[in-house]
Amino acid sequence: MKDIFVATGGRPLKGSIRVHGAKNAVLPLLAASILTDEAVAVDDCPFISDVDAMTCLLTRMGAQVERMGRRICVRAKDVMPAEDMKELCGAMRSSMFLLGALLARQGEVRVPLPGGCKIGDRPLDIHLDGMAKLGAEASVSAGEVHCRCSRLKGADIVMRYPSVGATENLLLCAAVAEGRTRLINCAREPEIIALARALNAMGGRVRGEGSSVITVDGVDKLHGATLVPDPDRIVAGTLILAVALLGGDVTVFGASKRDLDSLLPYVCSPDMRASADGAGVRVVCDGGRMRAFEACTAPYPLLATDMQPQLFACALKARGVSRITETVFRNRFAHARQFEKMGAKIYLTGSTATIVGVDALRGAALKADDLRGGAGLCLAALAAEGESRIEGVEYIDRGYEGLEETLSLLGADIRRVRVDEK
Ligand code: EPU
């Protein structure tokens, strides 16, 4: 048996919704929890499968993990990479954080290569180069990453690309390395700020987060703390784009002005009004066709690659010809082939998609191949005439807590159905 979504388009969205804690912040915070043997609590953890997989990995490594609603408490008195981690690591990219956390905690780590969504090559060279600069011997062979070091020593690390995961892994290592580390050309995403804030709450000394140079003065020991992630900006952005595409009047609590400003320039329709205050963002829109747009993904603070498939869905019915260029991941257009089944007109050339907006989309049998692509398919299905069936729900569940429930609470016709596996 497997879950699929069944969606019928044509309804505007109405109501208000609160966004859960950010997946991409919660996962590194959970990894950071094993840097100390004291108890660490991570609040506002979403009920998504990537968080379940991470807590399962921590448990298998010997940590005591307890979930109380949205709070997850971890106590990692003794941790060891476990024999049976391979399958779970293979299923999620975030298992890569265990590399930095275990190296920092134990001086040696062997973990299976991380997996994740099928969105292109996801090498670890920037992570491993950085760890080598900190004094570790790092190598990859037979599907396993091996790093060891008697004592990590602070260093200047110039990153060839501002990789989010590498910045996070190196922060985890540098927090307890001897002396000062500078991460130069590091990532600036809000999730980096969340991790730096968390390490500081645990007694770390991290400065400059949010800029492209972070300075970390290593400490001998970190202690327990309560860590709080920001609301998920990608979930918020997905809902903002859903209203821009489908029309309606929705307040997204937890969304910020920044989330709005990074998307609004692309999704202008004549009757769209949007406003933000401290509590959230309200978008009001008549659901008419929006103007075509040009967009290009890039590291923060520019357009997030994690918003690209949802923005792509908006372009399908825009008035005119839109262009979307993906610069972060090499292979993040799998959704384009699915949109074509709905009658979309798309031309792919390398990393650019040219989308000729059509008057109407029709429901189709669709298959998600990755998390954000799956969210994009849901949006397109809700903008189409007739019924769509969306497979690959397991990808969507990795990062959205009941996306179909959220959308149907706002009035969309979408539901989860259990069907026979074929
Ligand atoms: N890269 C390398 N070498 C490395 C690391 C990265 O070449 O050692 C390349 C990647 O192949 C990619 C680019 O650098 O082309 C960006 O990768 P990055 O390391 O920044 O991404 P990540 O850490 O693997 C995180 C998020 C992704 C999000 C990206 C970019 C987590 C768990 N994942 O991935 O989130 O798209 O940053 O913002 O934080 C998602 O949530 O759907 C998702 C894929």
Could you provide a short overview of the structure?
This protein is α+β, with helices and mostly antiparallel strands and 422 residues long.
Q: Explain this structure to me?
A:
The chain folds into two domains: 207 residues, Enolpyruvate transferase domain (UDP-n-acetylglucosamine1-carboxyvinyl-transferase, Chain, Alpha-beta prism), CATH 3.65.10; 205 residues, Enolpyruvate transferase domain (UDP-n-acetylglucosamine1-carboxyvinyl-transferase, Chain), CATH 3.65.10. It is 31% helix and 26% strand. The mean pLDDT is 93. It is built from 14 helices and 23 strands. By secondary structure, the protein is an alpha+beta fold. The strands form six sheets. The protein has a four-stranded mixed beta sheet with strand order 21-22-1-23, covered by helices on one side. A four-stranded mixed beta sheet has the order 2-14-16-15. Strands 4-5-3-13 form a four-stranded mixed beta sheet. Helix 4 runs parallel beside helix 6, helix 5 runs parallel beside helix 6 and helix 6 packs parallel to helix 7. It is globular. It binds uridine-diphosphate-2(N-acetylglucosaminyl) butyric acid. Uridine-diphosphate-2(N-acetylglucosaminyl) butyric acid binds next to helix 1, helix 5, helix 6 and helix 12.
Q: Any ligands, ions or cofactors bound here, and which?
A: uridine-diphosphate-2(N-acetylglucosaminyl) butyric acid
> Which word captures the global form?
globular
Binned strand content: 25-35%
The count of DSSP E runs of length 2 or more, i.e. the number of strands, is: 23
Give the C-level CATH assignment of the largest domain. Answer: Alpha Beta
Helix content: 25-40%
Number of domains as seen in the coordinates: 2
CATH topology of the largest domain: UDP-n-acetylglucosamine1-carboxyvinyl-transferase, Chain
N- to C-terminal separation? 9 Å
The count of helical stretches stands at 14
Which architecture of the largest domain would the CATH scheme give at its second level? Answer: Alpha-beta prism
- Return the structural class: alpha+beta
**Order of adjacent strands in the largest pleated sheet:** 21-22-1-23
Mean pLDDT comes to: 93
Largest sheet: 4 strands, mixed
